[in-house]
Amino acid sequence: MASWRLTADRSLWSRLGTGGVVFFYAAMVLLLASCASRPNLPTLGDVPPFTLTDQNGAVFESASKLKEQVWVADFMFTTCPGPCPLMSSQMHQVQKALEGEGIRLVSFTVDPEHDTPAVLLEYGQRFKASPGVWHFLTGSATDLNRLSKDVFKLGVVDGQLEHSTRFVLVDRHSQIRGYYATSEPDAIARVIEDARALLKDRS
Q1: Is the same domain home to 54 and 19?
Q2: Structural domain harbouring 15
């Protein structure tokens, strides 16, 4: 039996010829390289399609605007006296580090009563938000609460203006791949590293 297998293997290689053997090994190397470069990040949830309003007053449909995009999300409000300005500065760092690589950034307000599109536009300009890259979104409290509480698991939007200070990384398939506490010293570096890995992954 072993002799038959050896003979069959030799017959296979002889039929392939030198060119075929080289092609076979090249294909294996590419396959292994693809597997090795694939991001080793957990899948932590799914983000269903949503419709809100952006800082330009336009309808923002995630199904089209974020289709096959890698994006980073956070929840904030423009009159926040505490962590929000720092978070937005950190989001700007992500934007700058990944400029030209296809990243998208999405900031959801937790204060839709005050944060109108015009207010969000002015706020975004303060932090040098790139048009078409960094989106500031508002909508009904019900929709924003559903996203914060049920989708991203970051707490409720109930008018108390309490919110998480974590960033959330979402892949091309609308799957949550990471949470990052912005208060941690290496958080932004990890966001950038993990987002870049997802941007390179076209699977």
Answers
A1: no
A2: 1-37
